[in-house]
Each structure stands twice: as C-alpha cells, then as structure tokens.
Amino acid sequence: MRPSNPSSSFALLLPALALCACGTARLAAPPAATGIEINIAHINDHHSHLEAQADFEISIAGVPTRVEVGGFPRLATLFKAPRPNLLKVHAGDAMTGTLYHTLYNGEADAALMNTVCFDVLELGNHEFDEGDAGLRRFLDQLRSGPCQTTVLAANVEPALGTPLAPRAANDYLQPYLRKQFSGVTIGIVGIEVRGKTMNSSRPLPSTRFHDEITTAQQTIDRLRAEGIEHIILVTHQGYEADKAMAAQLGGVDVIIGGDSHTLLGDFSAVGIAARSGPYPTVVRNRDGDPVCIGQAWEYAKAFGLMQVRFDDRGTVRSCRGEVTLPIGDDFRQPDAAGAFVAVDAATRSRIFGQLQGSGVRVVSPDPVAQATLATYTGRLEDMQRQQIGTASEALCLVRVPGESTNRSSGVAGCEQANTLARGSDIAQAVAEAYRQASKLADIALQNGGGIRTPLPSGKVSYGTAYTVLPFTNVLFELQLSGRQIVEVLEDAVGNHLDRAGSNGSHPYAAGLRWQLDLAKPRGSRFAKVEVKLKGSDTWRALEADRTYTVVTSDYLANGGDGYATLARVHASGQSVNTYLNYTQTFVDYLLARGTIARPAAADYSHQRVITRDGQELP
C-alpha cells in the first residue's frame, strides 16, 4: 500500500478493504456478467532480440533441420491477425540483451513494440537496469508512437519528484487497466517481481516495491468492489511463482507471466524435449476456481495465444491455446558430408506437412515491422560482422545444473545441457576470461544469469560477444578469505533456494571448483572446495584462513543477486576497480586465443551436483 501518498491509487484500496473484511470474500450481489470468450496474445522477455535467430535447430522426422526462428516482424504478423476480443500483452523485460539496446537505449525496442500496439506492458526487472531515469527514457520512446500502451506495475511506487513520478504517482506506471470486450469490463493487473528487481537491478533507493501477493489481492478486491469479475494478472516473477501466487489469491482468473523464460507446451515432435508444463497450465485459486497460466519463452522466439471462456458469473469455464514458434521457410538439412544445405522441393513440401500440430509454424514477417527494424540495422552491421574468434564447439547456457528449462534449445550440441552436472559452458569460459584479464586474481566468479545466450559453434563476432554479455559492467578485484569465499557460494545458491530470488545468482568460477548438494541446508551444500592459485597448475584444498584475490563484476561486488558477503567485503574497502569492461574482456580473450572451446573436465567449477530432489547428475 501507499499510505504516505493519499492521492495515489494505493490509498483508494481502503474502501475496497473495508467492504471485503479480510479482502478475500466475494462481494454480495455483484452486477451480472455475460459469458464471454477473450483471446490473449502475449510475449515476454524479448530482451532487445529484434531480429530473427538464424540456424535454430529442430528435428523433423528425426532429421536435424536448421531454420530461422522468431524476430519481432514475425511476432507482429501473429499479433495483427484478426481475432475477436483480443488483448495484446507484453509481460516484461523488453530491454537489455543485444547491441540494439547498447546502441539505441530502448528506442529500437519501443519502435518495434509500437508496430504491435500492445494493450499493456508489465515492467520486468531489467527495465530498471539503467535506473528510473533510463526506464523513463524508454517509456517516453514508447509513448512517442501511436499506441499509448498502458505500463503496469501495481506494486511499484516511485517517489514523487523522481523520474517515474515527476508530478503524480501514476504519471508513468498504472496499477491496472480496465478494458471492455463486448460490453464486459476486464480488469488487467500488473505485478513486478520485488526482491529480484531491488537486488538484481538498479532502481532508485526511493522507489518502493511492495509485496507481490498482498498487492495483487488488494488490487483485485478494488476491481471487484467496482463489479469487475474478470481478472487477469500480468506478472513478471516466474512460472513457479505464478503457480504459487494463484493458490493464495481469491478472484484471479488468468495469469500471463514472464521472467523465468519458460517454454510451455509440447514441442517434442520437433526435438525440443525440455518442458516445464502444459500450455495453458490450469491450477486452482483460493476460491477453488480455475486459473489459466501462460508464458511464452524468450527472445522473440515464441508467441502465446490463449482463449479463455468465462461463464455468466465471471468464472473461468475453459481455457485453451498454444505457444507458436514462428519460423521462416528456408529449411536446411545435412547432406552426405554433414553440411547443412537447402532442401529440395519434395522435401520442403513434406516438411510443411510434418510441421502440422507441432507448435512450429511458417510465418511471414510483417512488412511494417520489417521496415521499422531496417531503419535500425545500419549502425549495427559493421560491428556485428567483424569476426573476433571461432568456437570449435557449442558453449551451452545453463543457470542451475538440472533445471527443467533448456536455455540452449536449438543450439546443436546443447540438447541435454540442462541435465548435466557441469552446468554452463559459456559461464565457465567468461569466468576464465576474467581470470586471465586480472594480473592478480586466483579466482574469477560469474553469476549464471549474467550470461544471456549460449555460444554456438562457428564464427564469433563482436555482435555475438555483446549478445552473450550485453550489460555495462566493469571488473573488481576483492580480497577474501577461504571462509568468505565459501560464504559467497552459499549466498549465491541460497538466493534462489532459500530466499526465492533469481536463480541467475547461481555461481560459476574459474580457478575454483566444488561439489554441490542442493538437497542440503545452507552451510553444508558445498564440499571439497578446491582452488588453483594464480600461476599454478595444481588444485589444492581451499584454506579457510588464507586470503585469495577474486575478480568479478561490479554488479556482484555491490551485492547484486544476493551476494551479501561480497558486498560487505567491497564496502570495507577490500576491493579495487580494474576499470576493465567485462564484455571487452571477453572480446580480448577471444582475440588473443583465436579459438574457444569448452574447458577441460577438471576445470569446471561444478565437479559433482546433487539436485534439490536428491538426484545426482551425470
């Protein structure tokens, strides 16, 4: 709530709470609602990925097949298809992730989003990566188009006089949107992930983030006090959090989410085995009524479309739909020598038939969106094309070993990456680049979420490097005892296991290795922690009282992602800013080596992993 600002929308929740006692019971005799079906088209976490992804690998009738997948112009085509009672939703994390953000600071994202004209954008945590002022700049760019997208964040309260609330609390951010379909008013409420945004991004200290569940229920109750019985939450907090929230709320009907980059639905027919749940996922709210949950993967590769039918009381009667992976019509399969070449006409015709019902669909780019994108590509082309090295094999992206989502789906050589104990190849390589760049560091530390994409085998360009590491971090060297290093590792894992924070905190390291048991309590998860000192080729036990030099990003040194022990060491003055840009460090590492490959097995930080369910990973 917002008691300090009576003029804000939070103060208006009080009458609703007075009418609803505990804030959970249905109000007596609400106005009758007519049964209705609405279509909800949605994406999330596009992270400045505006162009289609080339060489995305699927399997068609058991044959590896490379296609071009996604891209904002193809999404625009799907969003513009005529459908009755259509709600267009972006569930957050529009920015940060490619050179389009680096060079255009949100302008290109806003322009492409305005070719869709979303009804609502729910803020993601990465919308605050450049602070409240950076977010305002992006929202001004979004407003400059014809669409006037409503920006939702019911639990975010910027202080008056700050960039997001220069004159009033809701200058830029709204708690909800009322929208009418066939005479029926729908309430759409936005909820931002609280802890992750506060700890893993850069909002102003004066910007307050309220509890997600409490705020959601208060806002739902306010809308129901107005007689609105059809309630959709648009959240940016992750699939598992959405399911848990639904069970604790009364009156919610639909949750469209983002943040966890979750692919829902069954894509096994095209060789994508990782599956976190069905689409839609149907759970029950606190009233026992069904709640339909949807999310649409990541990076403009997927489009979600959910049809929700309500009965005449505003309760969900049914929901259905699918997630679509829109692709181009250029199919390439291996020839006798193993090279991927364009298929012949007969094979092409057969592929079209085999794609039916797979969730993969050939979609032509929207010409308006394509032309808009073309206006931004010019400045990128030279930098994107310049080669800085070669990956001799794919370096796969994983956050937590054993996670259900394969973040490297579509990258040849990474089909089972999420099921292996070694975890993230690319995080290991980046950590090694840090360690080599530092003249003093025994150990380099990298959080899994700081790496944004896998590295496919083949040519590596500047554009690739800045997609893998898109942020503006610099490297710090810190002096830590062996005991503190273990505490740092426990902080990193505890952030997502114990504090419901981002699993992007999960640690990777160069010059440090361990055995990890996620089923154990904090303080006993890490065993056999070993270090390879600077200039040595020998692994030896980490000594609790010995001091080591650790190099890591300023983000982690300042306590981002729950790295509290690092923050204390940094605040005590036991750190030095190297002023090395972390992406340029990786670029320099590639330029010096020429070729990059996966580390030797003995150099992976994860030497043995037991999942939180007690399963030992291979």
From TrEMBL:
Gene Ontology BP, a term: nucleotide catabolic process
Gene Ontology molecular function: any one: nucleotide binding
Keywords: Hydrolase, Nucleotide-binding, Signal
One cellular-component annotation, GO: outer membrane-bounded periplasmic space
Domain Calcineurin-like phosphoesterase stretches: 39-262
The 5'-Nucleotidase C-terminal domain, residue ranges: 415-567
Signal peptide positions on this chain: 1-28
InterPro entries named in the record: 5'-Nucleotdase_C, 5'-Nucleotdase_C_sf, 5'-Nucleotdase_CS, 5_nucleotidase/apyrase, Calcineurin-like_PHP, Metallo-depent_PP-like
Family: Belongs to the 5'-nucleotidase family.
Protein name, per record: 5'-nucleotidase C-terminal domain-containing protein
Native source organism of the sequence: Candidatus Accumulibacter affinis
